[in-house]
Amino acid sequence: MSEKRKEHRDRLVVLSLVSVLLVLIYGPLAPWFVAADRFVYDIFAPSVRTSSLEDGVIVSISPARKSADEILAEYGRLLEHLQSQSVKRIILAEPPAIEPTAELPGWAAILTGNTPIFVPTGHRLSDVASRTGTLKLQPDSDDVLRQSQLWHLQGGVMSPSLPLAVALASDKYSVDARISAADLAIFLTNYAPIKRIDATEVLNTEIASPALTGKTVFLDAAPELSGAVATLPSGQFVTRSEITAQVLADVEQGQTVIAPSWLRAMEVLAPALLAIVATLFLPGRNRRDIILLCTITILTVILIEGLFLLIGRMRLDMGRASIIFLGASILSWWLAGTVKKASIHAFQRGTDFLTAGRLEPAFAEFRRCQADEPLASAMYKLSLAFEDQAKPERAEAVIQWMKRTQGATQTANKFTLGGKEGTPQRLGRYVIERRLGRGAMGAVYLARDPRINRAVALKVIPIEKEFEDEDLEEARLRFFREAESAGRLTHPNIITVYDCGEDKHLAYIAMEYTQGLPLTQFTDPKQLLAPKKALEMCARTAEALDYAHNQGVIHRDIKPANILYSLREDQLKISDFGVARLTDNNRTKTGIVLGTPMYMSPEQLSAETLTGHSDLFSLGVTLYELLVGEVPFKATNIAVLMTKITMEDPAPVSNRRPGVPPSVDTVLFKALAKRPEDRFTNGGEMAIALRNCAKYAS
Q: Is 149 left (phi over 0), alpha (psi -120 to 50) or beta?
């Protein structure tokens, strides 16, 4: 199985898993996994900043060695005393139990006095109290109290909770803008203790009683800790009075922890988003990357939840979403292990093929392996083996594959075969130093002739690869014949051909080495030559072509890339004489798309017999591109291009660029004539015309 197919299959497996987890964790199995949400919430809950009720005091009656009637009577005495102290309000969060059939104590009338006294709805005292509120504690399944209802449905009517009823009765209460009508509950985090006073200190006349004027007094008989009825997420044990005091403080001081509807929508979208991330980015990675990505993602999710809670005072449950991503990560980690096993087996098979000299199967197996040092060494041996079999193009394919998979690593950088990037070490007597470029049928290398210590440009063509067996011998003879013809050319504007030969199934031509730049450097519209300079260069090229044509040699591939110019020496050279004929006759194999059809003459596209007029047409196209930065004939496919070259006339260039005289349009019109006989008689005539135009160019 290929690497892409394996990754695609793994992605489908992970997608299936996360889909099932989404359905189960947020569906039938939600009660089992909701503990994950609570666990993350409990981590941050103790750190949430909370303030205690500023004027709150708990007056606690000790129930030790007291009967129910004694406790009930002490409640009455305390209520009378607190009224005399002009307290702000009294809250009986946990009043003494009174049997339904028992008579109310006489002090019950105090509940309707001037001092606001609040009792829980449903208690016997609520029958006579003027201020009541519902107080129901609803801990989660793990017995931890994490939320408090603000409103309760009582007999078809929504009634406020006891803390909310106390807040609503205050003249200074203002509704928290963060709480909407849809928020029926707030969330508890931790308890900020308020002052607790023993009832005996309040009633003892022998000592100065505490100053309770203007205070919010909670009256109960539940001692601290031992009287606790709930546990908060912070781990604190609290009584009913303490819970009521904390909720009242949160509501009045605007520090409630809420879960707005838009945040609940995020909780719905987040698991799906994490599932998509897991499906797209986890499969196909190695185990280390999966662990790293999983850790970063889950920590980021938990951090976001913590920031919402600690800074925004909003609860966002992401525990279950993190479990889904963790499950996908574990599955991807396991699948990556199966990839490693397959990689080990592929590496062994590739090594066996390499030992047996079967290089192509070895390359196929090695490409299935994970990139590491052993693979790098094996690939290096494989590239050398391809070199020994005179297949430099395959050696370079090995190197390029390793560089793509290994990246810019030290291992990948060593794949240069001594700095030659897969090139043969030596061809004939020439020692190759480095590659200069690559064309449609071969590459050009900088080499050195050790006999006379001369630098040469070596044009190398894998002739046996380019031609079938029945055409190979003819191609070889034609190659040497064309190279021999090119070798007779001696002109200052033509690169001299020194030698040709064949070695390691590679045909090569040794040519003069020049450091000039190809004219393609000056075809960018932003880097065009001055019109006068471009005309002069093409005039020199026309003169050189005239010389070659008189020697019976046609170039067949005149284009900016085959014309080199040295700025320092003001020297122009035409390259690739003796090679184009081989390419042209191999058109049926390589296809003209591999060549440069936009520079070809109509007769060359039609595979007719060529004369020097074809080179002049190509030179006209080159001049047009040097002047305006684009070729005269352009199309999206070869069929349309051939139609334009054979049927359409190019647009005048004098209108497209300042400084180009109208006479250039006349020269180009003649050079680009559709019929060869309508063009310039020879290159010399064209050179004269170009220089005449240059006199009027700026």
A: beta
Mean pLDDT of the chain: 86
390 sits in which H/E element: none
Residue 181 is predicted with a pLDDT of 59
Q: How far apart are CA 2 and CA 406, in angstroms?
A: 18
The domain segmentation of the chain, as residue ranges, is: 3-46+260-339, 49-252, 426-694
Residues β-bridged to residue 501:
508
Euclidean distance between the first and the last CA atom of the chain, given in angstroms as a whole number: 64
- Asked if residue 188 lies in contact with residue 145, where contact means CB atoms within 8 angstroms, the answer is yes
Which of the residue ranges 110-124, 396-410, 436-450 would you say has the lowest mean pLDDT?
Answer: 396-410
**Under a CB-based contact definition with an 8 Å cutoff, are residues 530 and 581 in contact?**
no
pLDDT of residue 694: 93
Cβ–Cβ < 8 Å for 643, 595: no
Place of tokens 């809950």: 45
Q: Judge contact between 650 and 639, C-beta under 8 A.
A: no
Taking domain 426-694, whether its CATH number is 1.10.510.10 is answered by yes
**CB-hemisphere CA count at 13 Å for 580?**
23
| Residue among 370, 372, 371, 367 at smallest CA distance from 350 | 367
Please answer whether residues 162 and 116 qualify as being in contact, where contact means their C-beta atoms are separated by less than 8 angstroms: no
Tens of pLDDT along 408-419?
A: 444 444 444 444
Backbone φ and ψ for 32, nearest 5 degrees, come out as -75, -35
In sequence order, which residues have a C-beta less than 8 Å from that of residue 536 and are 6 or more positions away?
690, 691, 694
Q: Span 613-635, mean pLDDT?
A: 94
Determine the pLDDT at residue 339. Answer: 58
Residue 641 contacts residue 635 (beta carbons within 8 Å): yes
Please say if the pLDDT value at position 522 is more than 90.
yes
Give the DSSP letter of residue 61: -
**H helix and E strand count, the chain:** 23, 21
Closest CA to 56 of 168, 197, 161: 197
